[in-house]
Automatic annotation (TrEMBL):
Belongs to the GerABKA family. GO terms for cellular component: plasma membrane. The keyword Transmembrane applies. It is found in: Cell membrane; Membrane. GO terms for biological process: spore germination. Keywords: Membrane, Transmembrane, Transmembrane helix. Its main location: membrane. It is a multi-pass membrane protein. This is Spore germination protein. The chain crosses the membrane at residues 308-330, 375-396, 402-421, 433-459.
Length: 494
């Protein structure tokens, strides 16, 4: 019995020791010339070159250069780094880590510990120096990735405003903001997201204007992101959204620095993604999405008129086709007699019911819009306008649709283009189909039901704790709904 207990005790101790050994972290793989060559064996865009240098004692110190020519400044390597390294080695009897660290007078050296970090640094444009005798690996920042000059963004036309726009370099984009706000209250925080992509993400805000709770919330959401790759601003916006599904956009996108600065001064934040020429602005509400970057360049009276026009445009774009279908299908008695007679004459010979006719015409116009967006700008605009006119006229002549239906659908489509945010334009197009379907089945009752559903959904939607219908509900500041004061007072978002 005693012998049996001793055996059990010995087995428990053995299991504990083996478990402790299993939980110990594996040692990082040692970096040497062979490891570097194997790591980049199938990467033809990486140069691995071993250059021997003579020390003062005539011993040879071989330094392995590793870099990517498309991402690094090769001219800097040949003209500055190699001669400086040659002087450093030749002027010392025996090279050591301390001598390299003390006498290196160019850009700062950073020690590299493992091969995973080595690969990341090379593909970020860094130069890797591996000293074989010292068995030490360093990196030098000589990054010179391909990038274009700042130019006007294609999605937001500037008439009176500045013509510099964001590009694919996050450092350049931050500099465009710093140029306009040279103050220490403008905070910039960096994150690295993506296990493979190692994408740089920047969060920008003004700490004495924005609500601190909003900053904490967005910092927490960004820091919790765990993905393999991050390649677009929309991907980031969907990940940090509180809801997994939402119809209306809860972020705004812009390529203009002046609009980002204006948003920051109104208590919002901006997120930049390296490799993306747009900034993600939040938190937003429905009426913020109706604003344009060009609004601040015009007289406030005309600007107020424009915002009212956009608000009226969004109502027309969503509800006009459905309202028309409800009238001509179920409530003909509400149409004036002269107009009803004209519509009846125009619809003579049309084989399709009005709801199906509307859905077909809406689908055709959306098809033209999508085709125009994918073609070059000059050809796309011509196709959208001319194609719509030609096919609309041909459909009327062929008796497939009525002139009144073409006018209503075309008016709704034109009203759609008064909006600024492209994501909102897509949402409006989807809602228009839903309103038409409900009105086609249930008439004005279905039209009112779907309108009420949209209002209830918007009333319950929040972005970072802020109601989506602010300032309409709650009525905090109705004057900011459509007007723009000449001297706005910068206040925190509640």
């Amino acid at each position: 019995m005693r012998f049996h207990k001793l055996i059990k005790k010995h087995s428990r101790v053995k299991n504990i020791v083996s478990a402790q050994q299993d939980t110990t972290e594996p040692k990082p793989e040692i970096i040497n010339h062979k490891t570097i060559t194997h790591l980049f064996s199938s990467c033809e865009d990486v140069i691995i070159e071993a250059i021997p240098f003579k020390e003062k004692s005539n011993d040879v110190e071989t330094v392995v250069f590793v870099y990517s020519p498309g991402l690094a400044d090769t001219e800097l390597i040949n003209k500055q780094i190699v001669p400086h390294l040659e002087d450093l080695i030749e002027n010392n009897e025996y090279l050591s880590k301390e001598i390299v660290k003390e006498e290196w007078k160019m850009s700062s050296l950073a020690f590299i510990e493992n091969k995973e970090q080595l690969a990341v640094e090379v593909f970020q444009g860094k130069l890797i120096l591996f000293f074989e005798k010292l068995d030490t690996c360093y990196q030098i920042n000589i990054a010179k990735p391909p990038q274009r000059n700042t130019e006007e963004t294609n999605s937001e036309v500037s008439i009176l405003g500045p013509r510099d726009g964001f590009i694919e370099s996050i450092s350049t984009n931050i500099a465009l903001i710093r140029k306009r706000l040279p103050t220490s209250s403008l905070k910039y925080e960096r994150f690295t997201i993506g296990a493979r992509s190692q994408t740089k993400v920047g969060l920008v805000y003004i700490d004495d204007i924005i609500n601190p709770e909003i900053v904490k919330e967005v910092q927490t959401r960004i820091s919790k992101i765990d993905v393999d790759t991050l390649f677009s601003s929309n991907q980031l916006a969907e990940i940090i959204s509180a809801r997994t599904f939402h119809i209306f956009p809860i972020f705004d996108y812009t390529g203009r620095p002046d609009f980002v600065v204006n948003s920051l001064m109104r208590g919002r934040f901006a997120i930049f993604i390296d490799g993306n020429p747009t900034a993600v602005v939040g938190p937003v509400n429905l009426f913020f999405l109706l604003k344009s970057a060009e609004d601040s360049e015009y007289f406030f009276v005309y600007n107020t008129f424009e915002r009212l026009l956009r608000l009226f445009g969004i109502l027309i774009a969503v509800f006009l086709p459905g309202f028309w279908i409800a009238l001509v299908t179920f409530h003909q008695d509400q149409i004036p007699i002269l107009l009803l007679a004209t519509l009846s004459t125009a619809r003579a010979g049309v084989p399709l019911p009005s709801p199906v006719e509307a859905l077909i015409m809406m689908g055709l116009f959306e098809l033209f819009r999508e085709a125009g967006a994918r073609l070059p700008i000059a050809v796309g605009q011509t196709l959208t306008v001319v194609g719509g006119l030609i096919i609309g006229d041909a459909a009327i002549r062929a008796g497939l649709t009525s002139p009144g239906m073409v006018v209503v659908i075309a008016t709704a489509l034109v009203a759609n283009f008064t909006l600024v945010n492209q994501s909102l334009i897509g949402v409006i197009s989807i809602l228009r189909f839903g309103v038409v379907i409900m009105a086609g089945f249930f008439g004005m009752f279905g039209f009112m039901i779907v309108g009420l559903m949209i209002i209830v959904y918007l009333a319950n939607l929040r972005t970072f704790g802020i109601p989506y219908l602010t300032p309409l509900f709650p009525m905090t500041s109705l004057k900011n709904l459509v007007t723009r004061t000449t001297r706005p007072s910068w206040k925190k978002i509640d």
